[in-house]
Amino acid sequence: MTNTTEAGTGTGTRTANPAAARWPGACDCHMHVYEDSYPLAPTATFKPPHAPAASYHAVQRALGLSRVVVVQPTGYGHDNACTLSGMAALGAEARGVAVIAADIDEAELAALDRAGMRAVRFMMLPGGVLGWDAMAPTAARITPLGWHIDLQLDGCTLPEREALLQTLPTPLVIDHIGKFLNGPVEPDSEAFASLRRLLDGGRCWIKISGPYESSRSGPPDYDDVAVLARILVEQYSERCLWGSNWPHPNTNPAPSEGDLLAWFLRLTGSDDVARRILVDNPVEVYGFPVATGTAPASSPAPS
Asked: Which residues pair with 27 in a beta bridge?
């Protein structure tokens, strides 16, 4: 297998042959937009980089991606203005994940829906705005819109939250391979079993993203996290999504998006699995139109 990407970092990802270009409609399901002109919320825990949508365009082109999901950063609280601006700049093939106030009115929710928002983000780590007590009421509010809950937490706490998550009336998307921070978590651990039970329920998805956020073994292979990610990709490909986590906020040095995509493609092992995760699953989760067009002749996934 030949690696088609070249290493790059932050906004400077480069590629000799865009790895995802052979799958029309390939989607990055987790990235952020930061603009210095938008004020941070009092709850912000760090100063983010200036990372406008125009800079992300270079990442899209380099990796051969055509669709994107812009996730509201915790640093802006529930003021979604920067994210909405980024979505507009990225065009019709962009969707978003919002952070909302618990008492948001129906008119504002409807406006967010028209703008392309498809989920509400719950960050259960420092900087988060909405707490566990707001999850069930929020899920009830967004069910008529067909939205889902996007959840980031320390996956080691999943067993104590599993009952709540199983009863949500909305679908659930969990970030960053579960982000087991108190790991390394073994495949036979109760925390990973809890994640698998959620996926078995048929209404939960997992993002194969941000391995560097929980890995202790580190790059380039993130071996401890790869053990879990490979199980998810092999046994739950219909429930997986991929995201770059660009611009890798609060991570120094920033990883290469090309390397992260190549790492993911090595896990998939086949074009069929890669296409399902990069193209088909985002259509179901974020409401993109079914991708049309014929990809170039199939080539092996990078190694």
From this structure: 67
